[in-house]
Design brief:
Two copies of one chain form a homodimer. The first copy, chain A, has two domains: 1-51, Arc Repressor Mutant, subunit A, CATH 1.10.10.60; 59-190, Orthogonal Bundle (Tetracycline Repressor, domain 2). In chain A, 71% of the residues lie in helices and 0% in strands. Chain A is mainly α and 194 residues long. Chain A binds a DNA duplex (30 and 30 nucleotides) through residues 4, 8, 11, 32-34, 42-46, 48-49, 53-54.
Chain lengths: 194, 194
DNA sequence: TTAAAATTTGACTTGACATTCAAAGTCTGA
DNA sequence: TCAGACTTTGAATGTCAAGTCAAATTTTAA
């Protein structure tokens, strides 16, 4: 990658970050391209130099976040751990990522209110992939006898719902650190499976 | 209440219902006053005859939903049931209400992206009231020894998060009825406390 | 140094709503 | 039936933000 390409990529990265941050704050529809630009001390015109339109910018940003968390999850999957420890770690990693990246996992729960067509398909695909991985973790635990028999789909939704909800109410001002909080929640949720 | 007042109230009720239904579908910012009116075969001008503006319409609608679910919860609180049965029932009633009314409890998790000032305060107040009631249910169960010791706040958030999340993925096409689903989820969540 | 390429700017266009309102239509009670 | 009150309409207005673009500025590389 040439120097110039690196610079462009860096700029795009900054813009994506700004976009996600403002959107986490104000919501997708309420954030303007000017908000996103202003945060970086640029004008909205510059943003359009790097991104075709608002939807593309948000799509790319969101896609990267999903891919990164997917990668994290895959890493946990690959580790040499007991079923319990693995699921536990997956949950903690998930929460830490979601909270620190302020993604809300994101735009709330309804990608179809933001994306359309191929973009929407891709986002849904990535989400499903993630969900499937979590399913697998639970499945494994049940098969090796670590977890009790449950309706995997429902329990998975419970776990994801509870974890993602944490992003909404977590406040850095609280007495618990993100790590402590993630640990607590993971332990409580594991009780469903033990 | 006079006949006319009744008619007006009925009309307002219809409009509120239409508003909630369209918003559940498309999200707050994406639904226009025309969408809401069109669903009732009126023009948007008429809607303004009944409601000052969009925010007020949505505020009133949302407030009523919150009040109704609060009332339901109070009724459960007042019943003669064991702690376990009571919390279980509260959860089931909650999910059934949220799913059938399609409220998402709603507008997603962030009322501050929709309401302002006094309206926002009132909505937050109602939500807190609801959350406090759930807390109470857990508290009672712990005190009478039915539940194990837990961090009530966190477990409460887990429960509410898991339940509200169900609204998003529940589909009437699935193999489970709302009742079955609510029952399953309630049972799984209770395991955290037993 | 300098000319071409890459970036940035900010004014401009456009379209989509929210909201208003005067006029038209409908109902109600005397 | 009729006057006045109540409703509805749809066109008009205002605002706001997305997206465009030619000109200005900065960077790059020969």
């Amino acid at each position: 990658m040439s120097l110039r390409e690196k610079k462009v990529e860096k700029k795009k990265e900054e813009i994506r970050e700004s976009a996600m941050s403002v959107i986490a704050e104000k919501g997708y529809h309420a954030t303007t391209m000017e908000d996103i630009a202003a945060k970086l001390l640029m004008t909205k015109g510059s943003v359009y130099y790097y991104f075709k339109d608002k939807e593309s910018l948000v799509y790319e940003s969101h896609k990267i976040l999903l891919e990164q968390s997917m990668e994290q999850l895959q890493n946990v999957l690959a580790e040499e751990l007991s079923s319990v420890a693995k699921l536990r770690k997956a949950m903690i990693v998930h929460m830490e990522y979601v909270i620190t990246e302020r993604t809300d996992f994101l735009l709330g729960a309804k990608p179809d209110q933001v994306f359309e067509g191929a973009h929407l398909q891709e986002i849904l695909h990535l989400r499903n992939q993630y969900s499937d991985c979590m399913n697998q973790l639970i499945q494994q635990g049940i098969q090796d006898g670590s977890f009790v028999q449950v309706d995997i789909k429902i329990v998975n939704y419970i776990i994801l719902g509870a974890m993602n909800n944490a992003v909404i109410w977590y406040s850095p001002k609280g007495s618990k650190s993100i790590q402590e909080l993630a640990n607590s929640i993971a332990d409580y949720l594991l009780k469903i499976l033990l």
